[in-house]
Amino acid sequence: MTKIAEKKAFLDDVCRETPEYADLLTLFRELYVTVAGREGETGISFSRTSHLTAEERMRFGFPLLAPEAMTVDPARATHFLDSVIEVMTRVGRDGKGELSLLRQALHGGGLDLPRLFRGCLAREREAIVEASAVCCVSPPLLEFVLETALRTALEEFAESVEPALVEGWKEGFCPVCGSRPGMAELAGEDGRRFLSCSSCSFSWPFTRIKCPYCGSEEAEKLSYFEAGDGPVRVDVCRSCSRYIKTRDSRKGHAGVPLDAEDLATMHLDLLATREGFERGK
């Protein structure tokens, strides 16, 4: 079973066990169905070519992938994005007008896809905002569609990266693509902490008592809270008021892809927000 198929299977189980989640997760489940088996069809590819070796990039705190390492085939990317838009139009309740406009811009050549994908990878939203204004859709909608394809391509690339290649990485952002962590995990008998990338799903070890966002190591400002008896809790930092959800795999769900676990614990995001914390990004 592929990783995407594993995500779909897990969300199916969640919806059976917690029916109130079904409506919230329908879009993601359908996207997984559409993407499964098509991971190599995004039109996005990456090269590790650089004037620095992988070891040098790690030593200087640079992720393996730089935006210029990305190559985009506009025709193939358009075909993939079109399937994403189709799912969102069929399953979603709102935004059908905007999705129609986005599809028109996509097929009319009004989107500079290489620039947009590089902007997403570099976390530079200027290109997204400009393109959104041109095709009359909201920036978050355009970003979601683009990142569905980008995450698919990044995850496939990250699966080829040997952990030894990024050994010694101590940063709070991903050593592969440079994105911030989406979740954390405690694994093994000693509960070693790992961060999981929000974009490519690569996991890397990280200091147990340290905020991955602001770097605070003041124990009295780092705490967590739980809701129920599940394996996921919320780690919070009172220095920067950010939080990250953390799964203790010793309590269950070991092996479940963390981005699927993230979707299945949206209630914890609501609780953290009510407590005045912002999701790290």
UniProtKB/TrEMBL annotation:
Keyword 4Fe-4S: no
Domain FdhE central: 173-208
Domain FdhE C-terminal: 209-279
Domain of life of the native organism: Bacteria
Gene Ontology terms, MF aspect: ferric iron binding
Entry's Gene Ontology BP terms: protein maturation
Cellular component, GO annotation: cytosol
Gene3D superfamilies: FdhE-like domain
Keywords: Cytoplasm
Protein name (database record): Uncharacterized protein involved in formate dehydrogenase formation-like protein
Organism: Geotalea uraniireducens (strain Rf4)
